[in-house]
Write a structure and sequence with these properties.
Number of helices: 8
Number of strands: 7
Helix content: 40-55%
Order of helices and strands: HHHHHEEHEEEHEEH
Largest sheet: 5 strands, antiparallel
């Protein structure tokens, strides 16, 4: 191998190894510095710099986590739930605020609670035109009035945008036009966020492809 090619390969390898590490630690440091600003909520005379004579890095992060934890404890209590409902009714009367608050709350509930009923499975549909395919997530199968007014058996799918999967399009698609995928919801999300750069392996690990679909080789080995 020529010296120039070897140096180029070493340089690219170094970038691949160092950039993710540097960016990760940079973002973590930025988060810690931002949360350290929460110390300003404490009266000046009780701040660590005044009491101890020196600053403690990361103390704001601990304070932020405690505030989140205490807020969650209060919100999960009987009185807290009533206060939350009252506050949400007040916010629901403010046009712009109710839209932003409601959307953010729904997205966080979907992500943090890992609600399996929200994104049930990953599918592929022809969108935005025939011959072009998009990854979508099945969100519902019982469509009420929509189903009543269509001749086909339709299901609700969410087509997310890249790289921000919290926005997208709700489509009602005939179930016969939906192509089921073997990837998990988490794998589908990674594929969408990475714009297709990160794609789950095929066939899935421990599986093989047959004429009838994906077959687990582990189960077949156990049966034999």
């Amino acid at each position: 191998m020529k010296t120039g090619s070897r140096l180029r390969r070493w340089f690219i390898t170094g970038i691949i190894l160092l950039v993710p590490v540097v960016v990760t630690f940079y973002l973590l440091a930025a988060v810690v510095r931002t949360m350290d600003g929460m110390i300003n909520l404490i009266p000046q005379q009780y701040q660590p710099v005044q009491l101890l004579g020196f600053d403690i890095p990361g103390l704001g992060l601990i304070l932020t986590l405690l505030i989140v934890l205490v807020t969650g404890m209060i919100g999960a209590s009987f009185i807290g739930k009533r206060l939350v409902r009252l506050g949400e009714r007040i916010l629901a009367r403010i046009p712009l605020v109710r839209a932003v608050y409601g959307s953010l709350k729904h997205v966080l509930e979907t992500i943090l609670y890992n609600n399996k009923d929200t994104f049930r499975r990953v599918v592929m549909i022809e969108y935005p035109r025939k011959g072009v395919y998009a990854i979508a997530f099945v969100t519902g199968t019982d469509q009420g009035e929509v189903q009543h007014k269509t001749s086909d058996n339709v299901i609700a799918v969410f087509v997310p945008t890249t790289p921000n999967p919290t926005s997208g399009f709700l489509l009602y698609v005939p179930e016969s036009d939906v192509i089921a995928l073997a990837m998990s919801v988490e794998e589908g999300m990674k594929c969408v966020i990475s714009a297709g750069v990160v794609s789950p392996p095929w066939p899935p690990e421990g599986s093989a492809v047959s004429g009838s679909g994906v077959v687990s080789t582990q189960s077949s080995d156990q049966s034999s």
